[in-house]
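User: Show me a protein chain along with its predicted structure.
Assistant: Here is one chain, sequence first, then structure tokens.
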Amino acid sequence: MATHNALKKIVAQAIDERRDELVELSLRIHSHPETAFEERHAAQWLSDYLESNGFRVERGICGIPTAFRATYGSGRPHIAFLAEYDALPGIGHGCGHNIIGTASAAAGIAARAAIDALGGTIYVIGTPAEEAAGGKVYMAARGAFDDLDCAMLVHPASRDSAVTYALACLELDVEFFGRPAHAAAAPEAGINALDAMVIAFSAIGLLRQQVRSDARIHGIITDGGQAVNVIPHHTAAKLLLRSLDNDYLDALRERVLACFRAGAEATGCRLEYRWGDESRYMTMHNNRTLARVFAANFEALGRRPEEPRERRALGSTDMGNVSHLVPAIHPTVAIAPPDVPIHTEEFREFARSESGHRGLMDAAKALAMTAVDLLADPSLLESAWQEFRGELAHT
């Protein structure tokens, strides 16, 4: 039987040997961007690739056509690499999910050698719609992650890190209903739904000064009226509320809703609203035990993972929901300079560049090497679960 360190060399070499096909797969996904729950090509390409490399693949799991589960091995532990592959509307892969999906698939395929030598089960779970709709939230509610011992993925970014902080996130859809009238001949006969929306957004702008520094409120007006010479009888908006504290998010939602109620009361409009509780993103629980193991492997590859310096400059991820169910990590791999933000066209170009390819290879290797550590030393997962249960007890 190969030694622990020998297995790490074997899994890293397996990824190196597949470099050309991995880069081709990543670029194929990048050049065919598909948004939330529409990732038919990406899901099929990743599933087919895993199946051709000895995985048993279940497609359309959890009632989601673009979700999948690929399995290799049997018995415990159950180690999962999660694959994301959705794109941003209008921008494409400006978050680099082409790299995430390909790296997780590559890590799973490489980790077969460790499974063959040490036993256990590797899963590559395809999780659509991270960018907009919270695919993992729905999958978690339907039991996709219930029987795992840990879950991991690596996200492209502008810095190397073994941990990621993420804000809880809640969606709000609102509509105002007024009464139309000719804007010049009889404006007094109308009830102006746009005025109600402007009042609400103005109140939210003032509210921002009075909320905690780790909270975020941002939104867009999706319907501002139908014609310039008609008093708008209908307006609509979509907002996101975020916080580094799950409980504070509940308090914030009531204050934001009060702003919209004020708009309705001031104008006489009728307000309708819907909270997206079914797709609510939770904060990220970084399992430090797993993160230390991953960081050591990242360093062995020449990366220098650093602790995020700013907890305010954060986004949200549905990986947070998974981290409340099982020990989980969401490391980042630098593919762009620190001044290039994600969710931009500039970052999209890095996701298909040579630095993106290097990030893909290093992410896949670090994930597979971490799996070797966990399979070879059962005490690591025991410690990860002890930490996980302790953190939940204080949540």
